[in-house]
Amino acid sequence: MSCPPYPGQPPAGQYPQGPWGPPPPKKSHKGLWITLGVLVVGAVIAGAVALVGNSDGAIVYNADDVDVGQRLEVTSGSDSLKAEKISCDTTDFHYVVAGKSFTRFGCGLGYSTFWFAGNEKEVLCLAQVFQAGKCYHLPESSGADTTSLAQAREIDCGQPVPAGEATNFKVETKESREPDCPEGQGEYYVAQPKPTGYCVSLLE
Q1: Separation between Cα atoms, residue 70 and residue 54, nearest integer Å
Q2: What is the DSSP letter of 69?
Q3: Is 46 exposed, middle or buried (0-12, 13-18, 19+ CB in 10 A)?
Q4: N- to C-terminal Cα distance for the chain?
Q5: In this structure, what are the phi and psi dihedrals at residue 113, rounded to the nearest 5 degrees?
Q6: Does the CA dihedral 77-102-71-156 come out positive or negative?
Q7: Could you report the per-residue pLDDT of 46-78, keeping only the tens digit for each?
Q8: Could you give the CA distance from residue 63 to residue 18 in angstroms, rounded to a whole number?
Q9: Residues of the chain with pLDDT under 70
Q10: Which residues make Cβ contacts (< 8 Å) with residue 58, sequence separation at least 6?
């Protein structure tokens, strides 16, 4: 179920020498679009604890179970999360392993963090994967909520869910580089495991 490696990724089981650096500076957007950029980045910085269950080869129990580039689906239990390997061909909302870290704070801005029960020195750095033309709901994460990764999901563009402390948005474009978004759109960019940039618009 392993996905093909991305060019330049570290060998399996090997950790990068240091934390991922921050993404390039955001272009200037006004009002809600600045807020959108903060929420999109803030929503992906979230904690997680692996849920122990019966192994069928797909459930991730530690960082050595996955390579950089592996696609994951994250679901929640009562107070913890389960990460499961999924097909590389999926177009549903999912995460991709962008790297690994020895600390929960080593992934850098723009990446989610997924750590493991009893071993917080094994951390997966995850990038969210969206599709152009689709709409999504991202919860705003907090230190007290360790299940927000599982709450991010695709939604019907015509029926956004009540936002509350969250963001509903539509992905207008997706490119294999840093995005150059028009005025009135926010952006989300990750450099790892391969450069991917999105231009997004808020849903009312």
Answers
A1: 20
A2: T
A3: buried
A4: 39
A5: -115, 135
A6: positive
A7: 444 555 444 456 888 888 899 999 999 998 876
A8: 16
A9: 1-57, 78-79, 120, 141-146, 163-165
A10: 1, 84, 85, 86
Dist. CA 94–CA 86, nearest whole Å: 9
Predicted pLDDT of residue 96: 96
**Best CA proximity match to 174, nearest among 125, 138, 124, 136:** 136
Neighbouring residues of 201: CB distance < 8 A, sequence distance ≥ 6: 169, 170, 172, 184, 185, 186
d(Cα 137, Cα 174) in Å, to the nearest integer?
17
Token pair of 176 as six digits: 């294999």
Please state the domain extents for the chain.
32-202
| Geometric angle at alpha carbon 64, from 61 and 69, rounded to 5° | 100
Alpha helices in 45-96 (DSSP H): none
